[in-house]
UniProtKB/TrEMBL annotation:
One of its GO terms (molecular function) is 3'-5'-RNA exonuclease activity. It comes from Hepatospora eriocheir. SUPFAM superfamilies: Nucleic acid-binding proteins (SSF50249). GO terms for cellular component: cytoplasmic exosome (RNase complex); nuclear exosome (RNase complex). This is RRP44.
C-alpha cells in the first residue's frame, strides 16, 4: 500500500518543440505524411488553395469567359491550365452552377477587374466585358506571370470537354413547394441493388424501392411518413432540394465506338457516355469526372486502369483523400521548418507524474502512441490514471500545422502504410508516448472503491514518462503469469475493466467488440475516459461541447437479421429488443453475426451540443460520449483537448469557429471516407497477386436478393456476390471461391463468388 497522494501544482520543465511554420508563398501548401510499416516515411506536399489576386511567378494562367463557365464549369478543375475567372462572372452564374463553384472555390484564381460594377448596381444587363483588355491589364499588372485567354484546342482533354456541354440541373427548394409539408432527406442507396435504399431524415429512416433516377447522397424533398414498410420512392419524393456536386473517378471502356464511363462508386444508378473524336486517347483509362444532371465532363486522366499505383491513387481521388506528388521545383516552397527543440518552462498548472509507473499497451510495432495507464492502490480507494498525449501543447490553433491537421481530420490506415494526420516527427516523435521519454499529457484520474465502483474523476495537465510500452501479447502473458508487481497491476486493471464492461452491458450496451483480454482492458478505460470527457465538457460548456452520437439502431433491420435465424424470433411488440439482440449475439452459432449487426446499425457522427437535444450513444449505452483519447490520429480529439484545457485554466474557449456546422460536417465526412478508403485499398491488395483466387473459403449467406445473394467471408473480412443462389438459404455456410480478379475489380469494384461443392 502506498501513501495517498496530494497533487500539487508546481513549476517543472520539459523539452518543448516550438510552433511549426511553413515557408510562405503565394500558394498555401500542406503536406500529407505517408508512413510505411517498414518505417519509411514520405512527405507528400499538396496545394490546397490559392488566394484571390495572388499569382505565382513563371506561371501561365488561362482566363475562362462567362459563356465557357456556364456550359463547361469543370474547366476550373483542370490544374494544368491554372484556371482564372472574373469575380463578376462568378457571382452572376446560374444558381445551380454557383453551388459547384462555391464547393471548389480553392481550385481556381479570381480577379477583380478595375472597372468592376458596385454590388448594388447588379442587374440583368448585357455583358460587355472585353476579355482581351482584361488579359492586357493582368499582364501589365503582374509581370512575373503570364495571362492568356483559354484556347478551346489547348489540349485533347480541353477540346473534348468543350464537346460535352452540361444542361441546367433542375431542383426545388422547400420554399417553392406550396402547401405541402416536406422535409429534407438524404438518399443512401444499397450498393448491391440501386433501386433500393433508405432515405435518412435526421435520425429517421424510410426504406424505399423503385429508384431509377436519384443518386447516392442526393438531398431530396420528402413527404414525411410513419411506416416500417418499404415504400415506392416516387410516392414520397418531390425532387432534389439542391444540386449535388458529383465529382468521381471512373474507368473508360470503348463500346461500339462510344466511350462508356463506369464509376468506381457502384451506387451511381447508371454508367455514362462521353463524346470524343479520339476515343483511343481515353480507352482503359482512369478518369476524374464531374457530373451535372445526366451530363458528364472529364477534367483529368489519372492513368491506365489495372495499374496498381493508379488504382490506389484513384481510390484516394474518388474519396477526396487527395494527396499528390507535386513538381520538384515547387518542393522548396512547401518544406516544413522545424525550429530547434528548446528548454521550456511549463505553466504552473501541470502536475508532475514522472515518478509513477505509467505504461502503455498497443499493437506490436505501434509508433503513434496516444494513451498510457497507471494504477495505484491506497487504503480507501484505487486510483487509475488514463494519460493521453497532449497534442494541443504542440499544435496550436490558427497555425499552419493546425491547418494540416484540420484538413486531414484523421489518420488513414492501410495494409502496407498509413497516411498520418500529423507529420511523423509529431505523430511518432514529440507527441507519441514513447517508452522512457518525457511527455506532456492530459490525464483523467479516476478513483474506484475496493469493490471497483467509480467514486470520482478529475482532469489534470501532467508531465509523464511512459516506463514501458507493452504489446497486447506481452501484457497478456504478464497477466497470466501471475508473478511480480506488474502482473498484479495489470490484473487489477483487468478486474476493474470487467466491472466497467458488465455495467455497460447491464445498461444495454451492444457487445460487438473485443473479448475479455488486454485489448478489452484498454477499450474499457478509453470508453470511460471518453464518456467522462463529454460529461466534463457539457457541465462547463452546455452550448459548445463537441460530442459523438450513435442514433438508435434500425430495429426493422435487426429484427430481420435475427428472425432470419430459425432458432430465435423477435416479437416486434417487445420493448427490450437490445437485450434480446445481445443474447442472440452471445448464443448464435452464426460466425458473422456481429459483422451483420454492425452493418445494420446507423453510423455514429460528431455534432455540437447546441444543435441537438438527444445526445445518447446507442452502441455503448452512454448518455453522453465524445472522442478524447486519440488526438494524434483524430482532429476531433485535439479540439476536445483544447476545450477541456480552457476549462482547467478557467478560460473561455474562444475558437467557436471550429465547432460550426461546416467544420463538424467536414470531420464526419473525412472520417467516413477514410474508413471506405481503407476497406477498398485493402481489397485491392488482397486481389493484387491473384493468390486469393486459388483458395476455397467458408462463407455465410447473409443477404438474399431477387437475383443474387451476399456471402460474407470472415477470414478475408469481405462480402461478395453469389449469382447462383439456387439451393441456398439465409445463414447457410457455403464453400466459395473468389472469381473476380484484380482487373475485374479495378473496373467494377465487385467481389464475385462461386460455390464449390
Amino acid at each position: 500500500m502506498i501513501k495517498e497522494p496530494l497533487y500539487s501544482n508546481k513549476s517543472i520543465k520539459h523539452q518543448k518543440i516550438d510552433e511549426i511554420k511553413i515557408n510562405n508563398s503565394n500558394t498555401k501548401v500542406i503536406s500529407y505524411y505517408k508512413q510505411y510499416n517498414s518505417g519509411q516515411v514520405k512527405n507528400i506536399p499538396i496545394e490546397i488553395y490559392k488566394s484571390d489576386n495572388l499569382f505565382k511567378p513563371d506561371t501561365i494562367y488561362h482566363l475562362i469567359t462567362y459563356e465557357m463557365l456556364k456550359s463547361f464549369p469543370s474547366l476550373i478543375l483542370i490544374e494544368f491550365i491554372n484556371p482564372l475567372i472574373i469575380f463578376y462572372d462568378k457571382i452572376t452564374l446560374p444558381r445551380s452552377i454557383q453551388y459547384f463553384f462555391n464547393e471548389f472555390r480553392n481550385k481556381y484564381s479570381v480577379y477583380n477587374t478595375t472597372d468592376f460594377i458596385n454590388k448594388e448596381d447588379f442587374t440583368e444587363i448585357t455583358r460587355t466585358f472585353d476579355y482581351l483588355s482584361i488579359i492586357k491589364e493582368l499582364n501589365e499588372k503582374y509581370k512575373e506571370s503570364e495571362f492568356k485567354l483559354l484556347d478551346k484546342n489547348y489540349s485533347q482533354l480541353v477540346k473534348d470537354l468543350f464537346n460535352n456541354p452540361i444542361l441546367p440541373v433542375n431542383f426545388l427548394s422547400k420554399d417553392t413547394i406550396d402547401d405541402v409539408e416536406v422535409k429534407v432527406g438524404t438518399l443512401l442507396l444499397n450498393m448491391y441493388d440501386l433501386t433500393k435504399g433508405i432515405i435518412r431524415i435526421d435520425e429517421k429512416r424510410i426504406r424505399i424501392f423503385n429508384n431509377t433516377k436519384y443518386f447516392h447522397l442526393d438531398k431530396l424533398n420528402v413527404f414525411d411518413i410513419e411506416t416500417d414498410d418499404e415504400v415506392d420512392i416516387n410516392t414520397i419524393v418531390h425532387g432534389l432540394t439542391k444540386p449535388k456536386t458529383r465529382v468521381f473517378v471512373g474507368t473508360v471502356l470503348v463500346c461500339n465506338d462510344t466511350l462508356r464511363i463506369i464509376p468506381l462508386d457502384q451506387r451511381y444508378v447508371y454508367d455514362f457516355h462521353y463524346y470524343s473524336e479520339n476515343i483511343n486517347y481515353y480507352h482503359n483509362k482512369k478518369v476524374h469526372c464531374c457530373l451535372f444532371g445526366e451530363r458528364i465532363q472529364i477534367f483529368d486522366i489519372l492513368g491506365e486502369s489495372s495499374n496498381f499505383d493508379v488504382e490506389i491513387n484513384s481510390v484516394m481521388k474518388n474519396l477526396f483523400i487527395d494527396y499528390v506528388q507535386i513538381e520538384n521545383n515547387n518542393v522548396k516552397d512547401t518544406e516544413i521548418d522545424k525550429l530547434p527543440v528548446k528548454e521550456h518552462k511549463v505553466d504552473s498548472d501541470r502536475i508532475d507524474f514522472r515518478e509513477k509507473y505509467i505504461f502503455s499497451i498497443d499493437p506490436p510495432g505501434c509508433t503513434d502512441i496516444d494513451d498510457a495507464l497507471h494504477i495505484d492502490e491506497y487504503k480507501e480507494y484505487i486510483e487509475v490514471g488514463v494519460h493521453i498525449a497532449d497534442v494541443s501543447e504542440y499544435v496550436l490553433p490558427n497555425t499552419e500545422i493546425d491547418d494540416i491537421a484540420r484538413y486531414g481530420a484523421t489518420t488513414v490506415y492501410f495494409n502496407e502504410y498509413r497516411i498520418d494526420m500529423l507529420p511523423p516527427y509529431l505523430s511518432s516523435g514529440e507527441c507519441s508516448l514513447i517508452e522512457n521519454k518525457e511527455r506532456c499529457a492530459l490525464s483523467c484520474i479516476f478513483k474506484f472503491t475496493k469493490e471497483f465502483d467509480l467514486i470520482s474523476y478529475e482532469f489534470f495537465n501532467t508531465l509523464i514518462i511512459n516506463k514501458r510500452n507493452f504489446s497486447y501479447e506481452e501484457a497478456e502473458n504478464i497477466y497470466k503469469s501471475g508473478e511480480g508487481e506488474i502482473s498484479y497491476k495489470v490484473g487489477l486493471l483487468m478486474k476493474i475493466s470487467e466491472r466497467l464492461k458488465l455495467n455497460r452491458t447491464l445498461n444495454g450496451a451492444l457487445e460487438l467488440n473485443a473479448n475479455n483480454s488486454t485489448s478489452s482492458l484498454i477499450e474499457e478505460f478509453m470508453l470511460l475516459t471518453n464518456m467522462k470527457s463529454a460529461e466534463f465538457m457539457l457541465t462547463h460548456y452546455p452550448e459548445y461541447s463537441l460530442l459523438r452520437k450513435h442514433p438508435k439502431v434500425d430495429e426493422v433491420n435487426i429484427i430481420n437479421i435475427i428472425n432470419g435465424n430459425n432458432d430465435i424470433l423477435i416479437d416486434k411488440s417487445k420493448e427490450d429488443k437490445r437485450n434480446i439482440l445481445n443474447d442472440f449475439i452471445k448464443n448464435s452459432n452464426i460466425p458473422v453475426v456481429k459483422d451483420l449487426v454492425i452493418k445494420s446499425m446507423n453510423q455514429a457522427y460528431y455534432f455540437c451540443s447546441s444543435t441537438e437535444v438527444d445526445y445518447r450513444h446507442y452502441g455503448i449505452a452512454a448518455d453522453i460520449f465524445t472522442h478524447f483519447t486519440s488526438p494524434i490520429r483524430r482532429y476531433v480529439d485535439l479540439l476536445v483537448h483544447r476545450i477541456i484545457k480552457s476549462i482547467l485554466r478557467g478560460m473561455r474557449f474562444t475558437d467557436i469557429k471550429y465547432l460550426d456546422k461546416e467544420n463538424i460536417n467536414w470531420m464526419n465526412w473525412r472520417n467516413r471516407n477514410a474508413k471506405n478508403a481503407s476497406r477498398i485499398i485493402n481489397e485491392l491488395y488482397l486481389l493484387k497477386d491473384g493468390s486469393v483466387n486459388k483458395n476455397i473459403y467458408k462463407g455465410i449467406v447473409c443477404t438474399i436478393e431477387d437475383s443474387f445473394c451476399i456471402v460474407h467471408i470472415k477470414e478475408l473480412s469481405l462480402s461478395g456476390i453469389l449469382l447462383d443462389k439456387n439451393n441456398v438459404k439465409l445463414y447457410d455456410e457455403v464453400n466459395v471461391v473468389v472469381t473476380s480478379n484484380f482487373e475485374y475489380y479495378s473496373v467494377h469494384r465487385k467481389i464475385l463468388l462461386k460455390v464449390v461443392l
